[in-house]
Amino acid sequence: MLLVHPPASRPCEPPPGLARLSGALTARGVAHEVIDANIEGPLHLAGSTCKRRDTWTVRAKKNLERNLSFLRSPEGCRTFDRYSRAVRDVERAVAAASGGGFRISLADMTQETLSPLRSTDLLLAAEHPDGNPFCEYFAPRLREAIARASGDVAGFSINYLGQAFTAFAMMGFLRREFPRLRIVAGGGLITSWMSRIDLGARFSGLVNRFVAGPGEVAVLGLSGVEPDGETRHAAPAYDRFPLEDYVAPGLILAYATSTGCFWGRCRFCPERAEENAYTPVPLDLVKDQLRGLVSRHVPAVVHFTDNALPAAVLRHLSKEPPGAPWYGFARVTEELADPGFCRLLAASGCAMLKLGLESGSDRVLDAMQKGFDTALSLRVLKALRDAGVPVYAYLLFGTPYETEEDADRTLKFAAEHSDCISFLNLAVFNLPTKSPDADRLKTRQFYGGDLSLYLDFEHPGGWDRRRIKVFLDRRFRRHTAIAPILRRDPPIFTSNHAAFFGGRDGEAT
Predict the structure, then answer these.
(1) For a tag on the chain, would you pick the N or C end, based on fewer CB atoms within 10 A?
(2) What are residue 79's phi and psi, to 5 degrees?
(3) pTM, 2 dp
């Protein structure tokens, strides 16, 4: 079996989904090969010749290996300004390969006239793989891998829209070159599409099977192996990934203690709309697997990829540290408002927590069904600050429940407590097509295409996207207490690298 992670998304760590599949296959002795094209492909493009001869591009190409070596070393997070220049130069070297209407970056890939939200455009990408900028890389790479791999299955993990065009180009290439090959597609984006669309009907001539949710059971079945009760809890395996190649100041090792979300009540959450079940890994198994992975690979950081780490897991980590610095998403809870508990988390190696604060308005938080208020948010922020745990805070604007006055409250909350916030992510709300709010709002298509997952809507209070963006650009981002926080965000890699820069002024932790 061949497992493929296509470009383009941030190439800073091995993809956790593919690592879990590889772990399940490894545990059952199934021969397989892994291609992380999301790191191989951009590195190939960055090192290739191009026609651009502007000063920036020439410099970026000339210094590519030096910049990559710097970003992969502990020195890569010592000086934020030098780090930022190196990241943008590597980005420039990759982007120089853009052409044919495609725009490529280290974090995304778009097309001027085609949309990954239209099945007809994805089929067009599959029919003409030679038109994809990554084709020069993936054509020989896939031929070689198929010739070497045993079995007749190629599985693609597609999680982001930026991967869609190249994923379908790669699948189209394989269908043309190896017509008897069974092609399987799964991953986060595929799961979201399958929750509302019959993908089999749209891509029947290209993909043999689509898999929603965790794919361990499916890949074992396709390999002719009967899954057992422990299949979904197999430890991720990273031995087949190019661990020295990822763009980060040390190895970032992803691990999940669960799938789904233990809270599952937020009105706006796709997890709730798609009815994804919450499945935890037993804590004794978490301990054993983490110890084994950390001992084997000695990561610089462990990235917990759970939608939110439950309090029970946080308590477990405080008592059974993974043996390396770690970070992940957590909910605002009473446990995190306990200064003593936060000090234990810091002592266990917690390098950063990502928190969905969402709003500075209690009325909005209540309508969202977040399960906490701003008073608790503030207690949590202060407890984490005093314990020395950096916070990457997420704020959401433009929900149907928010008014401009509520947005002002969010600005005031963030500004008054900016000393507790290390990093900020500002997002404008998109209404999921299966949201419980969709039926009561006047909606229209947001992104044209039969694969669109979101709707535009007429805001009950007139707080539309144009007004929100003006508010964010002219008031929020320019506030004297907010602007320094936003400048600390690592360019391109944002939260994926932020744990390396947890200090107040961008200095390394």
Answers:
(1) C
(2) -125, 115
(3) 0.94
